[in-house]
Specification:
The chain is an alpha/beta fold and 199 residues long. The chain contains 10 helices and 4 strands. The N terminus is likely disordered.
C-alpha cells in the first residue's frame, strides 16, 4: 500500500489493509493496482495537470482568460474532463486561499492527492477564522494591505488558485515554469518558487 500518514485512525488503516489483502487474494486487484493509482495521483495526473495549466496561463494570455472563465474547457487541453473547478487569481491586492470546512473536498484530477494537513480540523477552521496567522505559521507572510479571500470547496464546487508569476521569469517558457509551481501554491498556502540562478 502507499505511504502511511500520521493522524489517521489505526482502525481505518487496518480495515483498508484487510480490504486490500482480500481483493488481492481473490484476484479482483492486480498486485500493483493500488500503488499505480497512488502514483498516478501523486506524480502523473496531479499536481502536474494543475501546475501545467498555471504555467501555460502565465505564458499565454488567451489560455489564462479561458482558465479563469471556463476551466473545464481549459483543462480539456490536458485531456482532463472536470467540470467542478473554479480558478481564482492572486493579484498584488488579493491573495486567495482554498479550504473545505465541512470535509475535505478537493480537485484530485487536477491537483493530485491532497496534503494530510488539508483534511485536518485545525486547518479547516483556522483558514476561515485567522487565515493570515495560519499562512504565517505555514511560512507565507501576506502583507496586511493585501486582502485574503478564503474559498470554501464543496461537493458541487472545487477551487484552485492561479498564483502570480514570479519576478524575473519573463523569458521562461511553459516547461521552465512548471518546476516553480507546487500543489501548495495552487491551494494558496505558498508562493511559486524563483528560477534557479547560474550554477
Amino acid at each position: 500500500m502507499g505511504k502511511s500518514h500520521p493522524n489517521v485512525d489505526p482502525y481505518v488503516v487496518s480495515r483498508v489493509r484487510a480490504l486490500e489483502s482480500l481483493l488481492l487474494e481473490k484476484g479482483v486487484l492486480p498486485p500493483d493496482a493500488v500503488d499505480r493509482v497512488i502514483r498516478r495521483y501523486e506524480a502523473d495526473t496531479g499536481p502536474m495537470i494543475g501546475v501545467r495549466a498555471v504555467a501555460r496561463a502565465w505564458v499565454d494570455p488567451a489560455y489564462r482568460r479561458l482558465l479563469l472563465t471556463d476551466p473545464t474547457a481549459a483543462l480539456s487541453a490536458f485531456g482532463v474532463a472536470y467540470d467542478m473547478l473554479v480558478v481564482v487569481e492572486n493579484t498584488p491586492a488579493v491573495h486567495n486561499l482554498v479550504v473545505c470546512t465541512l470535509c475535505s473536498c478537493y480537485p484530485w484530477p487536477v491537483m493530485g492527492l491532497p496534503p494530510v494537513w488539508y483534511k485536518m480540523p485545525a486547518y479547516r477552521s483556522r483558514a476561515v477564522r485567522e487565515p493570515r496567522a495560519l499562512l504565517a505559521e505555514l511560512g507565507l507572510t501576506v502583507p496586511a494591505e493585501r486582502e485574503i479571500r478564503v474559498w470554501d470547496s464543496s461537493a458541487e464546487m472545487r477551487y484552485m488558485v492561479l498564483p502570480m508569476r514570479p519576478a524575473a521569469t519573463e523569458g521562461l517558457g511553459e516547461d521552465a515554469l512548471v518546476p516553480l509551481l507546487t500543489r501548495d501554491a495552487l491551494i494558496g498556502v505558498a508562493e511559486p518558487g524563483s528560477p534557479a540562478g547560474p550554477r
